[in-house]
């Protein structure tokens, strides 16, 4: 599955460079997204299978942090490629890398023992709700949905909101870049302590801290330097998404990790789609930029509360099993 997903992502990215119309480009980008959406949860499941017991959360979370790191580096590379070669170069570069990687994965990536031993006498999706897993599944879906709704709510609209508030384009871009950088830094920092403190505790605190920073941006209307610091705090909370991705794999038995992670991340993508749309609707209704940030703090705070509830439920289940 991982090799096929990587190959599909690379192939359709490469074909996007030769699209002859916007509709063709949209169709190829949709197919590219299928490869990307299939590869991430399978990679998380494989890392969880191979991770040593002394630090499973750290290694799986570091794998998840690779996603925003790739987005950031890809954005920097794209800006240079467009300037020199034009827009098709983005898709050529984005497609060539995965196509080169696919045969390397075929040669050297081992299959997990858990995947080979997977039971096939149950519906994979239905199994996510059996044997007491139903509350964990529903909570993970809700946390993923609300977390990514808040992240994309902020990430895609922050430049426009700052410009509308009077910030220059360069300042708006700088503040957004600081937010994105803090997402990576927050994920790396949390990955270093999750195995000692506990995954759910760390993530609940990170999400709550990010929610508070977003709320303060809207409530206080701070000067630009303080606004930038608060956006960094909001990005730190957004870095919890890597841990949520990791937890989506670690919370399930090995035989269903890929399915559990895939459906949880799929629920999150719903939030990623709805977030920018919701922000646009609020602006159309006459909400000010500051009001948008206050509204964005609500899903972030809800995700923190649900993460705390998930941690409490899992500890209770572990205590009963012990």
Please give a structural write-up:
- There is one protein chain.
- The protein is mostly helical and 322 residues long.
- The protein folds into 2 domains: 111 residues; 197 residues, MFS general substrate transporter like domains (Growth Hormone, Chain: A, Up-down Bundle), CATH 1.20.1250.
- The chain contains 13 helices and no strands.
- The protein is globular, with a radius of gyration of 20 Å.
- The relative contact order is 0.15.
- The model has no long low-confidence stretch (mean pLDDT 85).
The H/E string reads: HHHHHHHHHHHHH
Low-confidence stretches: none
Which value, in Å, is the CA radius of gyration? 20 Å
> What is the assigned CATH homologous superfamily of the largest domain?
MFS general substrate transporter like domains
Q: How big a fraction of the residues is strand? A: under 5%
Please identify the oligomeric state. single chain
Total domain count: 2
Helix content: over 70%
What name does the CATH topology of the largest domain carry?
Growth Hormone, Chain: A
Instruction: Say how many strands there are.
Output: 0
CATH class of the largest domain: Mainly Alpha
Architecture of the largest domain, according to CATH? Up-down Bundle
Output the structural class.
mainly alpha
Sheet of most strands: none
- The shape is globular
Mean pLDDT: 85
């Amino acid at each position: 599955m991982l090799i096929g997903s990587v190959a599909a992502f690379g192939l359709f990215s490469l074909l996007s460079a030769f699209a002859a119309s916007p509709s063709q480009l949209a169709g190829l980008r949709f197919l590219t997204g299928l490869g990307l959406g299939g590869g991430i949860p399978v990679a998380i499941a494989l890392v969880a299978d191979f991770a040593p017991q002394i630090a499973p959360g750290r290694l799986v979370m570091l794998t998840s942090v690779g996603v925003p790191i790739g987005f950031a580096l890809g954005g920097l590379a794209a800006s240079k490629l467009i300037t020199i070669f034009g827009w098709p170069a983005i898709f050529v570069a984005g497609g060539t890398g995965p196509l080169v990687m696919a045969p390397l994965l075929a040669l050297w990536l081992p299959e997990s023992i858990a995947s080979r031993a997977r039971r096939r006498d149950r519906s994979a999706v239905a199994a996510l709700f059996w044997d007491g897993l139903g509350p964990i599944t529903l909570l993970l879906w809700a946390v993923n949905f609300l977390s990514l709704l808040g992240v994309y709510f902020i990430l895609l609209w922050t430049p426009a909101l700052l410009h509308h508030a009077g910030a220059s384009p360069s300042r708006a871009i700088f503040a957004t870049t600081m937010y994105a950088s803090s997402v990576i830094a927050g994920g790396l920092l949390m990955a270093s302590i999750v195995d000692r403190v506990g995954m759910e505790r760390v993530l609940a605190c990170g999400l709550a801290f990010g929610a508070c920073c977003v709320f303060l941006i809207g409530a206080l209307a701070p000067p630009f330097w303080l606004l930038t610091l608060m956006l960094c705090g909001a990005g730190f909370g957004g870095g919890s998404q890597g841990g949520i991705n990791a937890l989506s794999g670690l919370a399930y038995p090995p035989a269903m990790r890929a399915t559990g992670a895939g459906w949880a991340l799929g629920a999150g993508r719903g939030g990623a789609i709805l977030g920018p749309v919701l922000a646009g609707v609020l602006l159309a209704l006459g909400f000010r930029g500051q009001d948008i940030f206050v509204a964005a703090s609500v899903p972030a705070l809800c995700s923190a509360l649900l993460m705390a509830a998930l941690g409490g439920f899992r500890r209770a289940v572990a205590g009963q099993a012990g």
